[in-house]
Amino acid sequence: MRKLFRLTPLAALLAGLAAPARAEPQATIADYMAMDVCVDAADAIIPNLVPGDAACARRRDLRPGETPPYELRNFLNPGGHCTEDGGTVAKLNRPVERGGQTRIVSSTLSLPVSPCGGARGRPGRPGEGGASIQWHDEGYGFIMGSYSPVALSVYQTPLCRDGSVSSRRFFRGWVIAPATVPAVGQGGFGVFESRLATGAASALPAACPTRYRRALTTWLVAPMRYTSDRELVSIVSSHFAQVSRDGLSPGATLQMEQTYWTREFGLSRWEKWAREDWVHPRSHRSAPDLARELRQRGRCGPAVGGTFDISSRTRFTDAPGHDDAYARAIVDPRSGRSQLWLMTLCEDYTNIRVRPAGKALPDASAIADPAYWRP
What we know:
Blueprint: E1 8-9, E2 36-38, E3 59-61, E4 70-73, E5 89-98, E6 101-110, E7 129-136, E8 140-147, E9 152-156, E10 174-178, E11 186-198, E12 213-225, E13 231-240, E14 255-262, E15 266-275, H1 287-297, E16 308-311, E17 314-318, E18 327-331, E19 338-348, E20 351-354
Antiparallel strand pairs: 1-11, 2-3, 4-5, 4-20, 5-6, 6-7, 7-8, 8-9, 8-10, 9-11, 11-12, 12-13, 13-14, 14-15, 15-19, 16-17, 17-18, 18-19
Signal peptide: 1-23
Keywords: Signal
């Protein structure tokens, strides 16, 4: 598998800093996958406290078997007339141990209809939802597979050749960022090979795929202000389904998914971006049209901003003059060619709510396929 990695300084987002500081000493990608909990001097979880609260003097990662005292939700109409915006989904990012192996299960379950939703909420059936399985090795953090009411998606990689019955066949299929978190203000990129399959992971043929597709992943560590007005150091990971022949740019890719990972909450935000000439295959709506609708709804604030070089052929920069949508430009510094990209979907999960005592954890059996936990 071809791999590329390069750290580059953030040009504008943190201008004026003499030298970037590491997100936290010895921070690893594992610290950005699971929710943190506030604990007392005896290391016991303190109910009704959330990381970031003034009274949360000590915190650590949630451990397997523990019940978090809070949950993450999205937003419906932030800043609207409703005093109680409970969102449409509840998310937990928690470690699950099976057979001595640990994975992070990021579950998202639909909530009952909220008075704030109106016609724009469009919630799913209560209790319906999806999830993803995440983990890391010595080099990278990654998503192994995902589940939704529509389909099961599994990412197989050339590591399958090391043992097709091992869960390593799903390692580095959808890469998030390096295992050692870069300094704040730094980023990088990698080209990774994977093969998408649908269905249960344990039902895959024993034989490894014979062909894989190359995809580009970029990452950046930067402060991000979320819809909740919380400002958190975040790993911003951008996954392009394709990559140019030289491995230095998105090439002909028309869409990108961008995820935000925080030490406090794990997976904290998800965005979908499209090039301005992309058209939705079913609704036939253009990217600018969908982007304007998203901005008007107000469920997400702006994406991380600034100008930064990912490679010698890829520069992310702001795109002024698009006040009705969230827009970015991807520029080739060599040729000067610029392409406009627009955010068409977004969920911000920093709408934090305390979980009632005794509330059961979501059933992870639908996504917790034993194949993901095999040593």
